[in-house]
Amino acid sequence: MEKQVILYRGLKKYFGFDTFKGNQEAIIDSILSGNDTFVLMPTGGGKSLCYQLPALLMEGTAIIISPLIALMKNQVDAMRSYGEEDGIAHFLNSSLNKQEIEEVKKDVLSGKTKMLYVAPESLTKMENVEFLRNIQISFYAVDEAHCISEWGHDFRPEYRRIRPIIGEICARPIIALTATATPKVQHDIQKNLGMNKAAVFKSSFNRPNLYYEVRNKNEQIDREIIRFILSQGRKSGIVYCLSRKKVDDFTGILQANDIKALPYHAGMDAASRSNNQDAFLMEQADVIVATIAFGMGIDKPDVRYVIHYDIPKSLEGYYQETGRAGRDGGEGRCIAFYSRKDLQKLERFMQGKPVSEQEIGKQLLLETAAYAETSVCRRKMLLHYFGEDYNDPNCEHCDNCLNPKKKVEAKELLITVLEAIISLKEKQKTDYLVDFLIGKESSDIETYGHNEMEEFGSGSDEEASTWEALIRQALLDNYLKKEIENYGILKITKKGKDFLKNPVSFKITKDDEDEDDISDLESDDSDVLASSGGSGGAADPVLFSMMKDLRKKLSKKLNVPPYVIFQPSSLEAMATSYPITLEELQNIPGVGAGKAKRYGKEFVDLIRKHVEENDITRPEDLRVKTVANKSKLKVSIVQAIDRKVALDDLAESKGIDFNEMLSEVEAIVYSGTKINIDYFLNEVMDQDVLQDVYSYFKEAETDDLETAQVELPDYTDTEIRLVRIKFFSDMAN
Question: Using CA atoms, how far apart are residues 573 and 551, in angstroms rounded to an integer?
C-alpha cells in the first residue's frame, strides 16, 4: 500500500497525472521490485514514463540506452522541465565536446542525475565503462529494443553488445522496451539480453483511432498527395520517403505549391535536422518530409496524417511510422502508396548482402506486399502480424472495411492447399506452394522432382493471385502458420488438420474480384488497375471510356499501340480535371508540349463537348508546380544526349544511379520530347537484341515492364527499358 502511495505521489509531483495508463503501474512496480521487465507497448502508449518515474523514485542513476541522438535530446529536455535542476537528466554521446562530457560526469558523480541517456556506441567505450563502474546504477533501460533483432525493422549490430557490456559494468535489473515486435523479435530481444525470466507486459497493438488506406502508386502521386495535404488545412503531417534524394525533391515540390514543408534525413547536418524538427514541433512547419530517420521518440501528439510515398521495407517499420499519427487519440489518417516496382527496387538494393540477410529482407518485403495487396481488413492483418487476434468482422476504419468486396466460398480450395502442403512435407514457402499449385515448372520444382507428383498443378484452374489471397486468409484464420525462423515455411495448425477431417465453410475475398467491372478494359490498362488496394480511378468513367475509344481509333489510323498516344494514367487524369485547351492538357502527367501538339486537339475537343453537353462544372485545376532544379536536370539530360554522352557516364556525373537516370529519360520521352539514344544502344547492345525487343513493343498491347519481362525472359530489365525508350521516342514523338 505504501509503495502505491509513493507511486501516485511521484506521478502527480513529476508528471502532473492522477492516474496511470494501461499497464504502466504494474510495469513500474515490477522495476521497483528489482525484476527484469519486458515491455511491448505501441507508440503513444506511454513507454517513456515506465522507466522515467522509477528512475526518479529509486536510489542511484538509471542508464537509458537509446539509439538516436535527437531522441535523447528530446527526452532530456522533457525531463528537465519536470525537475527543478537541469542535472536531473543528461545524455552522453558523440555530440558532446570534452568539457561538456566532464560536466555530465560531475553531475552524475554528485548524485544529481537520475537518468543518463547513452548511445550503444558510447556505452562500449572503455573510458565510459570505467566511469560507470564507479557510480550507483538503479537499473538499465534498453529503449527501441527491437534494434537487437535481425528480424526487427531497424537492426543495429551494436545492440548485440549491450548484454556483455552490462556484465562488465555491474549487474542490475534490465527493462527492455519496444513499440513494435513480432513474436520472433520478442524472443530475440529476451534471449540476447539474457532476460528469459523477465516479467512480460504486452499491450494491444490496436490503435482504433487510426485509419489505414493503401493507394495505387502511379504518375499522379505528387498531385494526389498535394491535393490531400491542401485539403487538411494547417494540420500537422509527415510524408515518409525511402531515399534522401526523394525527400529533397518532394519537399521542393510541396514548397513550390505553398505548403509549409521541411526535409529531414541523415544526409543533412545535425543543426539543420534539429532546427527542422523543432520547427515542426513548434508548428512553424506543417509537414515534415523524411526518411525513417525522423520521428523515433518525437512526442508530437497531434500529427493528423502519415503518408508513405514509398512502401516501407517491413510491416514493423510501417507500424512504427504510422504510429506517429493521432497519439492524442484524435484523428490519424495513414495513407500508403504502393507499386510492385518499388518492392523490386528494394529487393535489388539487398543484392550483395549476405544470403541470410537477403532471405530475411525478402520475407519482410513479402509480408509488406501481402498487406498492401490484401482485400481483407487491414487492421486484422496488421495485428495478426504482431501475434494479436482481431475478431471484429469490420473495423470500419480502413479502406477495405469501408469498401468491402464480396466473399466467395473456398472450402474446396483450402482443402487443395492443405493437401498440397502435406504432399510437400510442410517444407516450402508461399511462393513455391503457389507455383506448385498452378503447375509452374520452376527450376527449384524440377530439381526436387515435385513436378512429377500427382498434386502438381492441382490448382491450375485458378489464378496465382487467388491462391495468394487464400493462403493469406488461411493464415489469418489460423489454419496455417508460418515458421519465421525458417524464412516463412508454411505449416498446418491443429485447426487446419481438424478442417481436413471435417471441412466447414471457408470464405475468401478475391483480390481481383473487380474483374467483372473492368472486363471491358483493354489489357494496356492493367498497370492502372493493378492489384493494390484502392486505385484512384477516373472521376468520370463515361469520359474515360470515350477517350479510350478515341485513342483506339487513332492508334489504328497511325499504326501505333494505344499506350504510345497517351498512357492510361494520363487518360485518368484528363477524366478528372477536364482540360479543354492544349495549354491545360500540358498540366496532365505524362503530357508535354510535343505530345499535346501531336495528339491533343481531338482529345480536348472531345472533352470540351462532353463538358458542355453534360453541364459539368470543372474542378479548379491544381497545378503541381515543379521545382526549377528538376526541370534543369531534364534539360541538361536532353542536352547531354544531343552531345552523345554515354548514359552511364551521365548518371555518374549527375550523382544518380543508372536506374534513376533511365526513369528521368523515360519521363522525358513519355511527355513528348524526341531524343535519339541510338549512339548508346549501338555501343552496349547487340542489334538482334535491339530488333527483337523493338518488335515486341510494336506488337504489344501494353508497355508495362513486368509484362515485357515475362514475354522476354532472355533479356534484362535494363535492355528492355532502353529499347522501350527508343521505341517511344521513334513512334510517339
Answer: 15
Write phi, then psi, for 84 (nearest 5 degrees).
-90, -20
Amino acid (one-letter) located at 685: M
pLDDT band at 512 (very low <50, low <70, confident <90, very high): very low
* Residue from 676, 685, 689, 686 nearest 725 by CA: 676
Cβ within 8 Å of residue 313, ≥6 positions away:
153, 242, 346, 361, 364, 365, 368
Phi then psi for residue 471, to 5 deg, are -65, -40
How confident is the model over 542-573, as pLDDT tens digits?
Answer: 898 899 899 989 888 888 778 788 888 788 88
Eight-state DSSP code of residue 177: E
Work out whether strand 174-178 and strand 199-202 pair parallel, antiparallel, or are unpaired: unpaired
How far CA 38 is from CA of 142, 145, 214, 384, 484, in Å, comes to: 10, 9, 33, 20, 21
**Residue pair 160/125 in contact by the 8 Å Cβ criterion:** no
pTM of the predicted model as reported, rounded to 2 decimal places: 0.64
For strand 489-492 and strand 480-483, is the pairing parallel, antiparallel, or unpaired? antiparallel
Based on the number of CB atoms within 10 Å of its own CB, is 288 exposed (0-12), middle (13-18) or buried (19 or more)? buried
User: Phi and psi of 91, rounded to 5°?
Assistant: -125, 155
3-state helix, strand, coil in the chain (%, to 5): 55, 10, 35
Are the beta carbons of 660 and 649 closer than 8 angstroms?
no
- What does the alpha-carbon distance between residue 255 and residue 238 come to, in Å, rounded to a whole number? 14
C-alpha cell belonging to residue 695: 518488335
- Kindly compute the dihedral angle of the four CA atoms of residues 624, 522, 403, 208, in this order, to the nearest 10 degrees: -50
238 SS3 class: strand
Phi, psi dihedral angles at 290 (to 5 degrees): -145, 160
Give the pLDDT band (50/70/90) at residue 406: confident
Q: In order of start, what are the domains of the chain with their CATH numbers?
A: 2-202 (3.40.50.300), 210-363+383-388 (3.40.50.300), 407-509 (1.10.10.10), 516-613 (1.10.150.80), 628-732 (1.10.10.1390)
- Which three cell numbers, joined as nine digits, stand for 456? 502438381
